[in-house]
């Protein structure tokens, strides 16, 4: 599937993505990219985040591909069962946090526990780092296995955000392109 054939819904994590974050840059660069705003970035409520994702999927007029970072990865996993048989064709998931076993995850993000373990009803790729302070690589592999996601180890890349030096993140864009090539319209 070509990017121009889909609505690319870009879903930031806790606290939103700053101006230099790769998600903001992709939203500006991808002609069909839509940056999705949540009601409250700092005190997230699982049901509100899930409802926002569902609403944007339903309002889309074309096939949808989700691009989620951090806490939004868990929101997508929670919303997935409700998005079976919808326009969602795939999901590019980056730096899932582990609110169950990682004490560094913000207390406000713990409401996204337990992490869903059911397979996602659409193709997906989970990209994680061996040095992410919010999730061990082993847990990320476990999430990917449960969700049926392709897994990519990004190596020493921190939380794959602006703080870890991932502004434009061209390697991520290449991985996203590979996922898009697998999807059908």
Description:
- The chain is an alpha/beta fold and 185 residues long.
- The protein has one domain (3-182): Alpha/Beta hydrolase fold, catalytic domain (Rossmann fold), CATH 3.40.50.1820.
- Helices cover 30% and strands 16% of the residues.
- It has five helices and six strands.
- It has helices spanning 22-29, 46-59, 71-79, 137-147, 170-182; strands spanning 7-11, 33-35, 64-69, 88-94, 124-128, 150-153.
- A six-stranded parallel sheet has the order 2-1-3-4-5-6, sandwiched between helices.
- Strand 1, helix 1 (22-29) and strand 2 form a beta-alpha-beta unit.
- Helix 2 packs across helix 3.
- The longest helix has 14 residues, at 46-59.
- It starts with 6 loop residues before the first strand and ends with a helix.
- The mean pLDDT is 95.
């Amino acid at each position: 599937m070509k990017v121009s054939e889909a609505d690319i819904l870009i879903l930031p994590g806790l606290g939103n993505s700053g101006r230099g974050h790769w998600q903001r840059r992709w939203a500006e660069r991808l002609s069909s990219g839509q940056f999705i705003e949540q009601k409250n970035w700092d005190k997230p409520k699982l049901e509100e985040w899930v409802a926002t994702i569902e609403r944007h999927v339903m309002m889309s007029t074309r096939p949808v591909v989700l691009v989620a970072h951090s806490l939004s990865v868990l929101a997508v996993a929670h919303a997935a069962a409700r998005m079976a048989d919808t326009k969602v064709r795939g999901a590019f998931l980056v730096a899932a946090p582990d609110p169950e076993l990682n004490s560094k995850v913000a207390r406000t993000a713990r409401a996204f526990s337990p992490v869903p373990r059911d397979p996602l009803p659409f193709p997906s790729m989970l990209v994680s780092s061996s040095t992410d302070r919010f999730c061990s690589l082993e847990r990320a592999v476990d999430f990917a296995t449960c969700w049926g996601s392709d897994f990519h180890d990004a190596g020493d890349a921190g939380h794959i955000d602006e703080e870890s030096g991932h502004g434009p993140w061209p390697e991520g864009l290449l991985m996203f392109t590979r996922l898009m090539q697998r999807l059908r319209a």
